[in-house]
Design goal:
Blueprint: H1 2-7, H2 10-18, H3 24-36, H4 39-49, H5 60-75, H6 79-92, H7 99-118, H8 122-135, H9 140-152, H10 156-169, H11 173-189, E1 219-224, E2 228-233, E3 242-246, E4 250-253, E5 274-275, E6 283-284, H12 287-294, H13 315-318, E7 323-324, E8 331-332, H14 345-348, H15 351-369, H16 392-413, H17 423-437, E9 439-448, H18 450-456, E10 468-479, E11 487-488, E12 494-499, E13 502-507, E14 518-519, H19 530-541, H20 548-551, H21 555-559, E15 563-564, E16 573-574, E17 580-583, E18 586-591, E19 594-600, H22 609-618, H23 642-664, H24 670-686, H25 692-708, H26 711-728, H27 734-750, H28 753-771, H29 775-778, H30 781-790
Parallel strand pairs: 11-14
Antiparallel strand pairs: 1-2, 3-13, 4-10, 5-6, 7-8, 9-10, 12-13, 15-16, 17-18, 18-19
Length: 791
Amino acid sequence: MERLKSAVPADIRRAVGEGTARDLPSTTSLLLDFFDGVPLFHQVISELTDPELALCRKDKGRAVELKGRGNACFSKREFEQALGFYSQALRYVPISSDGNYEILVPTLYVNRASTMHKLGLLKQCLRDCNRAISVSSNYAKAWYRRGMVNASLKKYSSAIHDLKVALSMEVTSSGKSNIEQELKLILLKHRNVNEVGRSSSDCQDAGLPHTAEPHKVVLECASTPNKGRGMMSLNVISPASLIHVEDPLAAIIIKSCRETHCHYCFSEAPADVVFCPLCTIPVYCSKECQEQAVGDISWNQDTSLEFNSHHLVDNAKLGLTSTRCKTSNSKQIAEHMHECGGAHWAAVLPADIVLAGRVMAQYIDKRLLTGKSSAISGPNLDLVHHYDIDSPTSKLESHIYAIVLLLCLQKYYRSDLSWREESLSQLVLLICQIKVNSIAIVHMKSVDGGQELTESKGYSTASDAVMCSVEQIRVAQAIYMSGSLFNHSCRPNVHTYFHSRTLFLRSTEYIESGSPLELSYGPQAGEMDLLERQKSLQENYKFSCRCSSCSELNLSDLVIDSFCCPRSFCLGAVSESTCYRSEENFVHVSLNGSAVCKLSLPDVSKVDEDMEKVGKLFFRNDDADLKIDPGYCMSCRSQLDLSSVVATLDRAASKINRFKELIVIDDVSEVLITNALQSLEQIKKLRHPYSKALAQAEDKIAEAFAKVGDQEQARKHCEASIKILEKLYHPKHIAIAHELIKLISIKLCMGDKAGAAATVTRAEAIFLLYYGPDVQRVLPYIDALKIAVSG
């Protein structure tokens, strides 16, 4: 795209950059007419849409080669490598009515199943056997392998049935003899054995049913002077109440998760991934997710997935059918279908552009299904776009991507429909709407010790010394039409979480009738200071926040990145920011030279006792006079040499980071530990006691000590980090609960099950406030922790 951008002449750049949404019909036509005469543009479109040039084509030769490499690894008992090769072979194998192609698919499934059987991945092995049988029901090896894995799962009746079917199909005498011997052994084991039931679904996110909760909250979209339209409740809402549940209009996986997560439900991809039958781009955790994304594919002799140069994909010929969305009474168009056909533009263009393409394709497909195939303009989403205040560079990029995307869609739909002149203008606005309104889908993941904790239900020896932690993984982005109407607050009263691709909103505090319902778009008070929050929201969402935390100066904003006063026993903070300017009872804050907000000074009695002491030092006089000058204590006005302090802190932080890195590779010494602790002491002397940098340093030291097995030191520093974060957030904030998970794992390693149990109870109480009955589904490791502390 950079090549196209640089080819645009200055006069067109100016017209696009200075134009508004009203000018889009003329500016899009102007740019399209210019590109029509540029050979480079036609080359780019050809590279993106020509099946002969596509990088995502199926390739039988490549599949056969990968299968051979997998066989070689299997023979050498390199099972993990073999698993990878068999999976990649399945990715590239084309599906055709030709018999040789058909037998390759079930063969690969059985080979991968055998590999997973060797690796102990029994459920995944069983699923691959089922897939092989569904493709070729008379394939003896598939029945044999399924019988063997059923025996490993102690499903002896099923194993006996499968092996008898395999025996009836086997044609070689040696094969029959082998099956007969296995049958005899299993018949002996079958006596008086309780068998395990089968799961009804292969989808990785289909385990626990969602807890049905009555929706008693009545919501209303209303306008406010400061924030425009937003959602509010017409009745009183109790803490932990489920407020809203919604499936997305469209969703797309982010590029960094393409190989690791299912492209439909966004769960972590299992070992037995399923691939798109039409291209090599997406992976799915199950056949169910594949069918939701691509459509229901018929595996019969009349089904052909070969491409036609006159029409990239013939839906009728393929036997594809649209499937239903998880939301009742709503239809889901197969979202990936228009991205196949041999073209690879969906793998090359940015995720938000591909998401715009999915919204557009859904709009087109729905019109085609209802017989409205003429005069396509584009979806008119009732969402803000902020096009007029976009930068000239952003406007030009939106124009170029809209033109490219429209031509890619036209290449797929061909003569099925006609396009209005305003289609391009609508697509530019759609891209802008997605940039402003799309919501990041995040899943919770237990890292470091989390996997061991889930599997072993706890730690029993010093060698198990790891510190379990939890992090949010951004896996996808999506458009939620109603969810987009909730405004942002840096101290939200609504918590957002996801199961699969479904959005859940839950209250985190008591909310009065008529009060706004606000969630966080990312930045929160306590996590970032005011300036960072404003900068992030301005860059990503084009607005200056006017929430309560941004209209009244928070004490956390003053201390989060501040330094200690050079005078001993003074809790005043020293800021290095030049963006604060105090005047009478207000503090003016500026960003990049322009005013951001005019803040009123807070009532310091509304914070906890320790923070109140700090606040009273800042606001010493009755007139609430506050002086914020870089390098000077806000309380006693003592001066600090900022350049020297910053240099010292950088060196100290570097030593702590180095300590943590060497711990990972088991290269640690007493000298290294001493240096790290001395660096921490330096940070304590120079940073304010409630600064986030100090909390992070304590956390890193705790993690390092946990890894070397000194759990008492790990506990001490972990608790110190949590104490600081409680001042920056509040004791019942979800960030505190995630930190408590670390403390629980440390106490378990110490053998302090009573202390760990008390901390689990505290963490679970916070999680229940944010997730309600969905805690077990969203955070499955909580149950593992409860079992560990009670064992």
